Structure formats: C-alpha cells, structure tokens
Amino acid sequence: MFELFSTMTALLRRDLTLSARLGGGGLLAVIFFIIVVSMVPFGVGPEGALLSKIAAGMIWVGVVLSMLLSLDRLFQADFEDGTLDLLMLSSLPKGALVLVKCTAHWLTTGLPLIVASPILAILLQLPDGLLGPLLVGLLVGTPAMSLIGAIGASLTVGLRRGGLLLSLLVLPLQVPVLIFGVAAAKSEALWSPSHMLLAAVTLMTLVVSPLASGAALKLNMT
Amino acid sequence: MFKLNFELANPKRFMDLSAKLLPWIWVIAVGLLGTGLYMALFVAPPDYQQGETVRMMFIHVPAASMATMVYMFMAASSAVALIMKHPLADMAAKAAAPIGAGYTLLALITGSLWGKPMWGTWWVWDARLTSVLVLFFLYIGYMALWEAMEEPVKAAKAAAVLCLVGVVNIPVIKFSVEWWNTLHQPTSLAKMDGPAIHSSMLWPLAIMALAYGALFVALLLLRMRTEILKRRVRSLQLSRARAAVQAGAA
Prior knowledge:
Order of helices and strands of chain B: HHHHHHH
Mean pLDDT of chain B: 84
Distance between the termini of chain B: 51 Å
Largest sheet of chain A: none
Oligomer: heterodimer
Largest sheet of chain B: none
C-alpha cells in the first residue's frame, strides 16, 4: 500500500517537473482560454447587459475547450518515447496510473484556468455575486473534465491525428458537467444543489474513468 | 440457449443460418413497413388538434425509441465481446452503429419537421431533442473510432470500451438535460393506467415499431455478413502478401 502510494507520488512529481521544465502546456491553455473568451464580445457585441448574462456560460465553455486542447498530450508524449510501455509493465495498477496522469493534468491545466477565470469574469462583466459560485463550481467540476478526457486520450493514444477524434469522443460526455457547472455559477450560493450534482458527476467519473481508461491503455499497448 | 449461442458464435454456422433466415426477415420487414406506412398515412384519422401533421408521429416515435434501443443493443454486444470474447459480438455492435445512427437522425429530422408547424420553429433546445442530439454525437464518435483504427481486433475492444462508457453516461446526460430544460410533451405510451392514445392511432404506431425492429434485424444481419466477408478478404490479402514476400526472399 505504502509502496503504491510512493510510486504514485514519484510519478506525479515527474509529470509536474516535466511540465514545469518543458513549459508550454498549462500556460498555453490559459492564454488560449483568455483569447477564446475575449472573442465572445466581438461575436455577440459589446453590450454590458448581454455579456454579464452569458458570462458564466462562456467562461465554462472556454474552460471545456481549453482543457480539451491539452488532452491529446496526456498519454501521447509518454507513448512516443516509450515511457508508457515501461509504466504499463511496472507493478503500478492501470487505474492508479490514470489517476496520477489526471491529477497532473488537472494541476497543470485545470488549476491555472481556474486562477485565470476571475480576469475573464471582469472582462465579461460577470455579476459580482456569481464569481464565488463560479469558482467553487470550477474547482468541483474541472477534475471530471480531466477524468473524462483521459478516457478519450487513452482510446486514441498512438493514433495519427487522434486529437480531432478525441474531441469528438469527449465533448458529448462533458455535457452534464457543463450544464451543472453553469447552473452552479448562476445559483448565487457557494454550495447549491447544482454544486452537489456537479460533485456527484465528478465522483462518478472518478470511478468510471480509471476503469475505462485503464482498459483502453491496456488494449492499445498490446 | 448456451448451446445455440456457441453454435452461432462460429462464423461459418452464422453465415449458413443467416443466409437462410435473411430473405424471410426481409419479407417480414417490408411487409410490416408497407402495412404500417399505409395505415399511418391513409387509414389513421387526423388528430383533432394537430391535424394531418400527427402522421409524422408514426415515423418519428418508433425511430426515437429505436435510437436508444439500438444503443442498448450495442452496449450489450460490447459487454459480451469484452467479457466472453465472443467473435460475433463485436461485429454485431459495429454493424448496429450506423443503423442506430440512421434511426437517430430520422428521429431528429422528423421531429424538426413536426416542430415547425407545432412549435413554430425547426429546432428548440428542449430536453428530449437535446438528449437525442447528444446520443447522435455518441453514435458518430463510436463509428469514428472504428474508422480510425486499422486493426479490427484492437478497434473492436476500443469501441466496446467507448460504448460502455457511453451507456453509463446516457442516464446522467439524460437527467442533466431534462433538469436543464423541459418543453417536449411527456411520453403518452408507457403509463401505468394504459396508453393515453386511441386504438386507431395505436395500431399503426405498434406496426411501425415492429417494422422498424424487423428492418433493424434484417440490416444488422446483412451488415454482419458483409463484415465477415470483408475480414475474410482482408486475411486472404494478408496471407497472399506474406506469400509474395516469402517468394521474393527465397
């Protein structure tokens, strides 16, 4: 048990170090997020009333797209240089491997996006009372996006042009997260029923994703 | 039951049996479809509120129910393929997908055509329409994954995993979308106190539902036969290429 835990932390530390030294990933996702959400006023017009009405939804859509953008690298880099083969041969259970990868992805992509979202809340004139509920909702909901994304990433690992297919597989499954996330942001409470439903979706994916992604990795590596 | 199962699992036996059955299933499917369409379009009375547009329902409702049932069938086949390594199960799931997607698209299009005179707009983001749309996306993703992977064995497993993830998520998606918005009229068939629909409309509807089911079985068997032949051609081509390489080396 302790050995498993130390293997997982070692792997997590490796992934975080890699993303910190190589740069790119997380920061690029944040910049993409800011740019894509800044496009909204150009699309719908600069009216403050309209913008503040759709702000929460646009921020959530932006987060979904930005998380998606970095997903195709989740297992791909390790697949290309052979690390994934070694990881699959090690004693580490497949589910644990998936959980570590998702944690690293969330820490390097999800968390920076959440940190950046207040800036976009200002730009889109999100009503003051909604920022807290939005941030809590993002904290609760973004792990589900990493976990659902891992299913798509593990299914398409090793495929040429897997990125586009990945979004096709993952986006329909993100619908509940998006719905409950936006509802949570509009609930004007820091912990509303919508937040709880969002947490339920995250907990469910926490069970489903390691199983499914583990199976998908196994079949793709043989 | 199990014995029959194993006999059918043999592709050769499946080819023999399906070749015998298929013409009969086609006759049943075409017959039911003809009768159902005639009753729906000419015999059934126009609705007192919806007028002639109610005839769209006979095409739409069975298609919508087939959309989910075919996905359930795919999920069951995928589970059998993953757990029991049944050689025909993954072919069944693969063969069912485009048929299910077709029914889903039919439900979406007829729903949209019906919505224009009834709701005054082609499309509304109502709960049922939206969840059927998401279901359509799930079908597309499933078929795209099959297309993207070259090796059939690997593709079968990957698609099966995706299909099972989808089937776990369908109730969640359905609940979330319903919770998000509801405008569509609730179902009038499956009620505790019997269907809330007159028998003059229930009969064409029931026949159309059976026709769609028979059509599904006919198309499924046809597609599975094609798939088996395709794989035979593939393995023949591979062994031929191997022989050519060996001849070249010698």
